[in-house]
């Protein structure tokens, strides 16, 4: 699908780096077809060394050279980088933003021209090709653009297509931010293992593998999580004793509140962007 399309990555931090890694390791893109930019040479050097991709600190160079441009910079500087590169953006290029909370409408109001715009919410697991990604298309992006974007993010995990309006913030709160919740849970489970006598390393390996195994069971069987939970809880056994404690501690409510808080923060970021971008304000 990507064939020899040139992919430009603006921003090579957590996500930009993870995407480059996943694209190359999956074979979806060849190093010679990737050019990336970052404000920091320190960020670019290891990427150039590891992946032999073209690197530059000049974003405009990336936009000029690429057919598909992925903006992988912080939401707070999206406006200034979009403005910086705007003159070189046109309908010949597919523009993908992965910035949390930045609505397509904000980008369209800032750039004030017809562009093939796609908004994507991936997560950091793209680095190990197990990303969870949602894709929403702007007014001038067509089905081929969506297919191209899905080809990129399916090469580094699983992607779904959604209508952006009100769902992308929820996805940012759930799967975009979700790896952080799981890392915290694994860290706590490892502490628990240490508390009941395991070495830190054994506890961490066992806790991580338990999460991986549970996730694979869910995805490969398609069974409901409640059904799978019941398959673990022996009558009068250990799992139900642990689950009772989790219920008493309000685990479900806490997780629901966490996703809601992250979703609301994404909305706040978006509302601020729309206001600032509409006033042409590009500094955070
Ligand atoms: N970290 C995550 O798990 C996820 C992040 N995102 C989104 O991805 C975007 C990037 O996030 P991260 O990679 O975590 O941030 P990061 O801070 O790790 O990377 C951002 C990169 O942009 C570079 N940069 C700063 N100013 C620049 C400029 N003017 N031109 C070019 N590069 C510049 C920085 O040097 C840095 O390497 C954000 O919009 C975030 O909302 C989306 C999903 C998940
Ligand atoms: O925390 C953030 O804003 C970014 C977006 C989703 C995950 N990390």
Report on this structure:
There is one protein chain. The chain is of the alpha/beta class and 284 residues long. The protein folds into two domains: 159 residues, Rossmann fold; 73 residues, ProC C-terminal domain-like fold (Orthogonal Bundle). The protein contains twelve helices and eight strands. An eight-stranded mixed beta sheet has the order 3-2-1-4-5-6-7-8, with helices on both faces. α5 packs parallel to α12, α7 packs across α12 and α8 crosses α9. The longest helix has 28 residues. The mean pLDDT is 93. The structure holds 1,4-dihydronicotinamide adenine dinucleotide and (2S)-3,4-dihydro-2H-pyrrole-2-carboxylic acid.
Quickly list its features:
amino-acid biosynthesis, NADP, alpha/beta, binds (2S)-3,4-dihydro-2H-pyrrole-2-carboxylic acid, ProC C-terminal domain-like fold, binds 1,4-dihydronicotinamide adenine dinucleotide, eight-stranded mixed sheet, proline biosynthesis, 284 residues, Rossmann fold, 2 domains, oxidoreductase, pyrroline-5-carboxylate reductase activity, 57% helix
Describe the biggest sheet?
8 strands, mixed
User: Total strand count, please?
Assistant: 8
Which architecture of the largest domain does the CATH hierarchy give at level 2? Answer: 3-Layer(aba) Sandwich
Estimate the helix proportion, in percent.
Answer: 55-70%
Q: Give the helices and strands as they follow along the chain.
A: EHEHEHEHEHEEHEHHHHHH
N-C termini distance: 37 Å
Total individual domains: 2
Query: Which class do the helix and strand fractions yield?
Result: alpha/beta
What's the average pLDDT? 93
